[in-house]
Amino acid sequence: MDLFGGTVRTLENSLDYASTKNRVISNNIANVDTPNYKTKDVVFKNILDNAIQSKLEARKTNEKHLPFYSENKSTYRVITKNNTIYNHNGNNVDIDKQMSDLAKNQIYYNSLVDRMNGKFNSLRTVIRGGN
Asked: Per residue in 74-89, pLDDT tens?
């Protein structure tokens, strides 16, 4: 039985995404002056995966065959952006964009934590009999 209809699991996955994005942005900011450092970003890949999985039906006929679907349940991945250069040393970190992304991600993370707290407060209220 899923207590909240999958909401807590979705919030957990979203918090994991926000934490990863925060770590990647912080790493970009820390390397703003590192020669030849390339900006990294966290992107969703589930749209492509869903499109591929819905049109391709395959099955393994031998246990030694490679699996058709990835066992990784993460809906995002970290990529490196190699197509730009902002500094004379080959670095492509735009500090203003990174700081803006960090602030936006922090607001997103805080809203997820508030929502998670709300779910657990609802559960606490039910357990206490409405008190």
From this structure: 678 888 988 887 778 8
Q: What kind and span of H or E run contains 28?
A: helix 7-30
pLDDT at 38 over 60: yes
**In the structure encoding, which two tokens stand for residue 63, read together?**
């246990």
DSSP per position, 45-67: -HHHHHHHHHH-----SSTTSPP
Q: How far apart are alpha carbons 39 and 82 in whole angstroms?
A: 8
DSSP 63-122: TTSPPSS-S---SEEEEE--S---STTS----HHHHHHHHHHHHHHHHHHHHHHHHHHHH
Distance CA 106, CA 53 (A): 33
8 A C-beta contact, residue 34 and residue 97: no
Residue with tokens 């964009």: 97
